[in-house]
Specification:
With 737 residues, the chain is an alpha/beta fold. The protein has 23 helices and 26 strands. The structure holds ligand MGD (2 copies), iron/sulfur cluster and molybdenum atom (MO).
Length: 737
């Protein structure tokens, strides 16, 4: 039964008020979480919430004793964790108790970027930010401010930006991450695959991974499903220039030449179409453009692809048949960080079309059609209509027709005066570390030098935070509430983030920071609540959710199983212009882009160079966890993988120290050498997230090397403007320092 806020507070304080553990002073129903008889704990309380060590948002149960977090486990009530977490999720205490945390608001005293600040009161810091942003708006218009964000807590600041009136809301997780995949699937099926991805890995008979290094890429539910699929006897085809963890479980490992996957995908489809191995009924019923596709594939033979990919034609034929043999439970994973070589939407389209030929969209073991738990909104007044200009994210005269979210590197570039249609003058940074996440770091620095005002809302004094004029220390995800969360998922659910312990030091939750800024800037009406508990109670009540139950369990799943496949009753609808799966994309043709995926040969490295590849390690979330001492105990360096033969030629052995010098002469080092057979001789590989320089990160500083500093070159995806990051080459020399 839903409860009103008033009753809720009454019930919870009566029931739980007396039983509170020490150290928790938040009031009202937030005290609800109690030892759960199912979990047991040697502490005082177990608080369910959801993780923020990455963006998968697994449910956690945080154990507290004497007011201190003692351990974090997976929440069995949450469909993304099912009682388990990835190693990073369990290491959340390393963030909460990080001695380097931002402790109080700071205002810059030295030159910008010198990381010199003085502590100030919240009053002074908020007044300063509100005053500066109001002046920027008066002088240049609202679009002169950009918000860069990553993470669920950004929702409050997005509301603030809508009130302010800027269209420049951006996140590197679009153009530097999964934007091209999203665009490709939208163009083909009329819908993306979402986040968390709605792939049914668990029930796949054949799973094909193009790069996607599951097991190192540790998205928890995917990895659990991956393990289950393997246990159930599913077979894997892994395409990766590196022998990844997933490759070690595979029936086929195809060590492809980097940047040539489109050729392989076209050749696979050539075989599948020529040999009539595709799902003919499905294609006839749901798709358009098959004849055009067939004609396009006619000359994309395995022999043709061999020259591009270096994969033997017989292997291409064999794997094509093998992949088709598993249909419709044959899933070609859509990928996640697909910002590789600038032809990424085309590669995404090839993957989408192959999935269509296999009939896997809307099928068990393929890509499901999930639904969200219905959540009502807390009403706010309509945002004022501002006559603003469009986002400043594309260079003058350039249009990327299918960009559906402002491009972060573009907005960065527009902050260097005179380069875009108008200049960006101020940045608000929320949970984003642009010096590590945007390519072409020299441009990021130039932008940082030219801006009139920078405010960073963060938890740590990172490289980018060091450039801010005002720093606002946010309480970590273990110390705050955020909005309710209900993504599309196989089992629709709603989850709550709630504080496990009180905010440490003088940190404050994001909702409070945004609300205080809004009040000062005249946008108070968009935060129509006294505190977050009132907001959450109202939202829950409007949504018919029992907040007590939610607070106690951490997540509530819809009671009835929801259909997720066409067979189970999901209406096969494809919201493309034709209303069908678009194998041939008229939308692309109309925009002057190739309507069927084309292969363009990538640039090759010189004889003494290597392709620079990078990826994830199970215990690290890019730059986000680099200073986490608990996780650092497991991995505190990112050695550079070099093939045995090339290492011998260079006279290198394991543990040697080297520098990497890229095609533009940027030198990064010293890096530790890892000599291995697990990589193609023309590639090197490092884990992203190391090589931080910030003075205040006493653990992460100068540990390992940064891939980002070596990414001085990108290839832009003409379809949606993403930055291909995997187009840089490096030479290797003995380290100079
Ligand atoms: N532990 C951990 N897990 C994470 C994250 C994290 O930080 N830590 N981050 C999360 C996020 S935000 C994302 S977007 C995902 C990213 O994870 P993925 O989407 O899996 O990342 P990719 O860049 O696609 O995959 C990297 C792999 O691609 C291979 N590769 C490089 N070039 C090529 C090529 O040309 N062709 C082929 N076929 N393979 C190539 C590399 O050798 C490497 O094994 O991971 C998520 N999961
Ligand atoms: N060279 C290179 N660049 C890449 C990638 C790569 O592999 N290599 N990967 C790309 C991908 S896939 C992605 S998704 C992007 C991600 O790049 P970003 O959007 O920059 O995201 P993060 O690295 O997660 O941001 C880390 C910041 O969030 C802060 N933070 C952590 N928790 C909180 C919190 O609770 N509140 C607040 N306010 N701040 C918090 C950290 O202290 C840190 O400053 O990077 C992309 N860029
Ligand atoms: S995958 Fe790991 S880090 Fe990401 S939300 Fe889940 S537990 Fe946290
Ligand atoms: Mo990402």
């Amino acid at each position: 039964m839903p409860v009103s806020r008033r009753n809720f507070i009454k019930i919870t304080s009566a029931t739980f008020g007396a039983a509170m553990g020490a150290g928790l002073t938040t009031r009202g129903w937030s005290r609800a979480p109690q030892p759960d008889p199912e979990t047991g704990t040697d502490g005082d309380r177990v608080v369910p919430s959801f993780c923020e060590l990455c963006f998968w948002k697994c449910g956690i149960q945080a154990h507290v004793k004497d007011g201190r977090l003692t351990k974090i486990e997976g929440n069995p009530h949450h469909p993304l964790s099912r009682g388990h977490l990835c190693p990073r999720g369990t290491g959340g205490a390393g963030l909460l108790y990080d001695p380097d945390r931002l402790r109080q608001p700071l205002i810059r005293t030295g030159t910008r970027g010198a990381e010199e600040f003085k502590p100030v009161s919240w009053e002074d810091a908020l007044d300063e930010v509100a005053d500066k942003l109001t002046r920027i708006r008066e002088q240049y218009g609202p679009e002169a401010l950009a918000l860069f964000s990553h993470g669920y807590g950004a929702s409050w600041f997005k509301t603030l930006m809508h009130a302010y009136g800027t269209p420049n809301l951006t996140h590197p997780s679009y153009a530097q991450c999964r934007g091209s995949r999203q665009t490709a699937f939208e163009l083909t099926f009329g819908a993306g695959v979402g986040s968390p991805e709605a792939t049914d890995i668990e029930h796949a008979r054949v799973l094909t991974l193009i790069g996607s290094h599951l097991g190192e890429n540790m998205h928890n539910t995917q990895v659990q499903d991956f393990a289950r699929a393997i246990e159930r006897g599913a077979d894997l085809v892994v395409v990766d220039p590196r022998f990844s963890v997933a490759a070690s479980k595979a029936r086929y490992w195809l060590p492809i030449r980097p940047g040539t996957d489109i050729a392989l995908l076209l050749a696979w489809m050539h075989v599948i179409v020529e040999e009539k191995l595709y799902d003919r009924d499905y294609i006839e019923q749901y798709a358009v453009g098959f004849d055009e596709l067939k004609a396009h594939l006619a000359d994309k033979t395995p022999q043709w692809a061999y020259a591009a990919t270096s994969i033997d034609p017989d292997t291409i034929v064999e794997t094509a048949r093998f992949i088709a043999g598993g249909r419709p439970a044959s899933l070609v994973h859509p990928g996640r960080r697909t910002s590789w070589t600038g032809d990424d939407t085309q590669r995404g389209r090839a993957i989408a079309i192959l999935n269509a030929l296999l009939g896997s969209w809307g099928r068990r073991g393929g890509i499901l059609r999930p639904a969200s738990y219905p959540l009502a909104k807390v009403p706010i007044p309509p945002f004022e209509h501002h006559e603003t200009r469009p986002p400043a994210d594309m260079p003058k005269g350039v249009i990327y027709p299918f960009a559906s979210s402002p491009l972060s590197h573009g907005i960065r570039d527009a902050s260097i005066p005179g380069t875009a249609d108008y200049d960006i003058k101020a940045w608000m940074l929320y949970g984003t570390n642009l010096l590590q996440s945007l390519p072409q770091q020299d441009r990021t620095i130039e932008a940082l030098q030219n801006l009139e005002f920078i405010v960073a809302i963060d938890v740590l004094p990172t490289d980018t935070v060091g450039w801010a004029d005002v720093v606002l220390p946010e309480a970590t995800y273990l110390e705050r509430y955020d909005d309710l969360h209900a993504p599309a998922w196989h089992d629709p659910y709603v989850a709550i983030r709630q504080p496990v312990v009180d905010p440490m030091y003088d940190s404050k939750p994001g909702w409070w920071i945004a609300k205080e800024l809004a009040k000062r800037m005249g946008y108070g009406q968009y935060f129509p609540f006294e505190d977050i508990e009132e907001y959450l109670a109202e939202r829950a009540e409007r949504s018919g959710i029992d907040l007590m139950e939610l607070s106690k369990k951490g997540a509530i799943t819809a009671s009835e199983p929801t259909p997720v496949t066409f067979e189970e009753g999901v209406e096969p609808s494809f919201p493309t212009p034709s209303g069908r799966i678009e194998l041939y994309s008229q939308q692309m043709a109309d925009a002057g882009l190739p309507p069927l995926p084309d292969y363009t040969p990538p640039e090759e490295p010189a004889a003494d160079q290597f392709h620079l590849l990078f990826g994830r390690a199970p215990t690290l979330s890019f730059a986000r966890t680099a200073n986490n001492r608990l996780l650092g105990e497991i991995l505190d360096d990112n050695p550079v993988w070099i093939h045995t033969r090339r290492a011998a030629e260079l006279g290198l052995k394991d543990g040697d120290k080297v520098d990497l010098i890229n095609q533009d002469g940027v030198r990064e080092g010293p890096a530790t050498v890892n000599v291995t057979e697990r990589i193609r001789p023309d590639c090197v590989y490092i884990v992203h997230g190391f090589g931080q320089k910030a003075k205040g990160l006493h653990f992460a500083r100068n540990r390992g090397i940064s891939d980002t500093r070596l990414i001085t070159k990108t290839r832009i995806d003409p379809v949606m403007g993403g930055t291909g990051l995997n187009v840089n080459f490096v030479r290797i020399e003995k380290a100079v320092s």
